[in-house]
Fold each of these.
Amino acid sequence: MVVLPTEENLQRAAALLRLGGLVAFPTETVYGLGASALDAQAVARIFETKGRPTFDPLIVHVAERGMLPQVVEAVPPLAEELMDRFWPGPLTLVLPKSGRVPSLVTAGLPTVAVRMPAHPVALELIRRAGVPVAAPSANPFGYLSPTRAEHVERTLGGRVDLIVDGGRTQFGVESTILWLGERPLLLRHGAVPLEALEEVLGPVELQVGPKQRPLVPGQLPQHYAPRTPIRLAYPHEVAPEERKEAGYLAFRDVPKGFKVVKVLSPTGDLREAAAHLFEALHQLDRLSLKAIYAEPVPEVGLGRAIMDRLRRASN
Ligand code: TXA
Ligand code: MG
């Protein structure tokens, strides 16, 4: 059931979380499928509902730093500094895990991924639930991420206890994931651009992309994919015959000859493009096209996250 984030509905959603239920809720990145991070049985339902392999660890969401001792063992000074700068916001930090977090959440790893979302509904929900909330994106495993409540409803609707509708998400791509070991390691490009992290940290080592050996099994080379076959290609690389039956996901300009075209940002703004990425793919995927072609975008700022998602979708 989809409900608006009224006082009453938030109270109900929070109670569901406390009692081991599954609640889909908006964050500033994508919609999350939440359960109490301290309740192994509730977390097991997340994996079951998404069809997600249990070797793929979850991100734990907190509403205030006071919740961190329930989740992590210690907060190193560098993490503190990053939280000052980027929280609440789309930066996930991988830190040593507390004994209270069930190992199902972290896929048996000694570390846990944690973030404080910058969305009033998410924050209010977690605060009221009074427990840290484990939440992957609220989509079937491997499929496009949800940026609207209706995306969740259409794919997981009957299987979650409640979907809280907070409208379209702001960033449209997932959080950036940073591992804080001996030195920081970027595990996933996301809504906080690498450039912003490097302002604080200096040059950051990357562990991203299909060619890297994954540090955790969760970094799968194929992911975020529509059901329609998708390929990265500039318009001129697609034969005129193929265009007639294909959709094109354009960055800024409308190419000729395609059956349908979605433009991510007419002004060429990468933030706007990221915010529209999954929504445009959801729309194209519903048209029973023979193929979707996606235009490469510049790999700077949010363009890195966009290209990461498109590469994996097309693998
Ligand atoms: O923006 C987001 O991060 C969204 C919203 C809902 O917050 N959540 C999200 O979760 O994208 P999910 O499940 O789609 O991505 C979780 C990924 C895993 O696949 C893995 O790559 C990484 O986070 N991860 C989780 N725990 C980890 C750990 N202990 N060490 C390294 N990576 C970890
Ligand atoms: Mg996901």
Note: The mean pLDDT is 95.
Amino acid sequence: QSGYITLDYGFKNTGSTTSKITFLNGEEGILRYRGYSIEDLCDKSNFLEVAHLLIYGKLPTAEEYDQWIYDIKMHTMVHEDIKRILEGFPSNAHPMGVLSSLITSLTAFYPESLDPNRSIDGVKLSIVRLLAKLPTMAAWAFKNEVGHPVNYPDNTLDYVSNFLKMMFALPAEKYEVDPVISNALDTLLILHADHEQNCSTSTVRMVGSSHASLYTSISAGVNALWGPLHGGANQAVIEMLDNIKKDGGDVEKYIKKAKDKNDPFRLMGFGHRVYKNFDPRAKIIKKHADEVLSKLGVEDPVLEIAKKLEETALKDEYFIERKLFPNVDFYSGIIYRAMGIPTEMFTVMFAMGRLPGWISQWLEMRENNEPIGRPRQIYTGENLREYVEMSKR
Ligand code: SDX
């Protein structure tokens, strides 16, 4: 092999690209989308405006924003045949698996999306379709799991309220969206919107680098996000907190397990590849958790357990030495649960939030004509050897 190969498991010290989209400072716990701080955006913006900022690099003018909202509303419906695809799933299918399949199925309903040489205008239509249809497909994946009839989009509602109604409305009952829930969810989606070259975004870029369609690249991102070390952590955190609660709330016992190298148990929602300080998103979500639960009048004992776990871990040498702090997934599940969102839908919420980030990164990679991703390896297998007849083995 000519030249030399630098081996870097998990690409811990490897930059895979240049990007103008998101800025992270892990030491200081800073996160900015196109130069705007997430604190500022959470206070003053909304998820679809942040989506426009990430994808097109600027906050929209009033006219651009109205057109953006109108375009998205026009595409919230999904093809009726998607119901046939849904019926093909067993009712216990995890919504993340259903969602990634439904996203891939868009290549069948919109075959022009498979043209690798599509104009940017053509891609823009795919982007609007994906942003518009993801909440519908996510809600339908949930309805499939609970065996309820699907709800069609209601374009008199805003993006998040439309999703909540498709998720929770039942034929026999009136459903009113609680603004406390829709506002909190909008903020959570903003906080999940992008995070530079994380596992699922790198997957979207890798798949997109082969000139696969936007839809199949995003579907690949959904599958990478599903892993419990990545976006699946928000579901794993709640399952962990529930176990600690069932076990009498003995957080010290679980801190000890997390430190024991012979014990596979990890403190889910703790640690981060980049943040060696508090994840700025976790700070905002923790503040929201208190507000949302009190406004909803929800008492969730796991919130106290989470706070005790955080307090104990942050004083522990093992966690301090390794700079392990709560990450975005540590408190988000507590808010989702207070909103009535079922555990198996937590990672779907993460995917809904991350969608504009994935799209913006895919677009940047394609606009920069980046080469197909194809890393090398250090071979450590057998040297040349001759074939041995079966009878002689
Ligand atoms: C997300 O990358 C992103 O930006 C991701 C994300 C995004 O927005 O896209 O921020 C979203 O995925 C957040 C992370 C969610 N995952 C979890 O909460 C799962 C628990 N966390 C760990 O699995 C871990 O911290 C990772 C996966 C998040 C990071 O793993 P790294 O950077 O590869 O770190 P590592 O596994 O090499 O750990 C370094 C040390 C090890 O100890 P030593 O071998 O040095 O003795 O820290 C220990 C690890 O054992 N460690 C933990 C731990 N996390 C790391 N020990 C106990 N509990 C933990 N949670």
Note: Residues 120-146 form the longest helix (27 residues).
Amino acid sequence: MEWRFCLTRRKRLDLSSALARGEFVPYFQPLVDLRTGELRGCEVLARWVHPTRGIVLPDDFIPYAEESGIIAALSECVLSKAFEACATLNQTFVLSVNISPIQFRDPILSKRLSELSTRHRFPLDRVKVEITESTLLTNLADAQSISTQLKLLGVKLSLDDFGTGYSSLAHLQALPFDEIKIDRSFVSSMCCRRESMKIVAAVIGLGRSLGLTTVAEGIEESAQADMLRCLGCEVGQGWFYGRPVPIEELQAMLALSRPS
Ligand code: C2E
Ligand code: CA
Ligand code: CA
Ligand code: CA
């Protein structure tokens, strides 16, 4: 118990000083129109550029940042860099940002996003907030009021990891979502498991009938992209289209794809 406490305290100190040193940065992963191949947006994924450990992935620090209460500050640091960089790109794609359950309970979330938007001149109608269902379990009424505030500012709302949570359908009905993201677990098995394919097809149909954009995540092979396209899925994301990259690489990619 004591050892665990020490470890947690140590982690907390590590995270706080990393935050102070600005070691958290945004990486960007493309979201692509499955029919035309055009860039529709980018998901912002946090990375810790550690002085000795190299690039640390979110699963290794987001849970501790949530636990120790610095998630909002960390997120603000990452989003600030992302907005700043993308405001100058001369592009119109949407930035999808991951918001933790704790942040989605914070009544000033919309104020924080507005401030960042103003500071970096990155319009909020180019921002999409991704939340998972765990966000909605504790207090649906708060989530509804925060969603309404965000929507009034022009922010779009996406239900992430769709199909893995609890009572997904009730949540789709309760909140003003614009998009559902089909979880990677279904996409990765859809070409070899008939059940997965049927579930993906049903989710795409559901999204369509509710007027929502359907996004498939974790596309690693062309066969998956082909099947999703045939099933009517609009947007895709995954290593097949591009891994998460730092801003310099995103800029280089965009420069290459721009017609001369
Ligand atoms: P997520 O939101 O479901 O993000 C998708 C994850 O799948 C990312 O992992 C991404 O790198 C990975 N991925 C994308 N395409 C593929 C693929 O084709 N194959 C495979 N195997 N993986 C793929 P990552 O970057 O490690 O992030 C993990 C999770 O950490 C995210 O899952 C998200 O829940 C959370 N996260 C990341 N950045 C932030 C942040 O700034 N704030 C918060 N609150 N959470 C974040
Ligand atoms: Ca996400
Ligand atoms: Ca996801
Ligand atoms: Ca996930």
Note: The chain has a mean pLDDT of 93.
Amino acid sequence: AVERTLSIIKPDAVAKNVIGEIYSRFEKAGLRIVAAKMLHLTREQAEGFYAVHKERPFFNDLVNFMISGPVMVQVLEGENAIAKNREIMGATNPKEAAPGTIRADFAVSIDENAVHGSDGPDTAAQEIAFFFKENEICPRTR
Ligand code: CMP
């Protein structure tokens, strides 16, 4: 089925100037960018987005990293988009990510791992709504 998923290019990858290279990976995988914005997250936004992790030991480091610079946030649409995006991102820990994946190629550590992608249909819907109003999403008409 055609799905939508929420993707974030994190501050490490924005700083490395590889937004375009990562967008190219999405496009080559058949994922369409149907919404996008660059943001420098506030602490409140980062804490809200990652609220599910707030009891985890890495929560503070995660929030501080995510507000350390601008991020690029996008909605990707396509057949099986959630799993497809996870496949091209590679494992959360870049040291375990398959060769040729975004994290293997652009990330150095589990803390600074270049990209985020929704992990399932419910989180995708929630995460998309966190950043985008319905009228900010632009499905293809041709
Ligand atoms: P992300 O998919 O954005 O979701 C939460 C992030 O926390 C994750 O990517 C990692 O960058 C970061 N993180 C740091 N340590 C861990 C850990 N031990 N397990 C999972 N995520 C971690």
Note: The chain is about 40% helix and 20% strand.
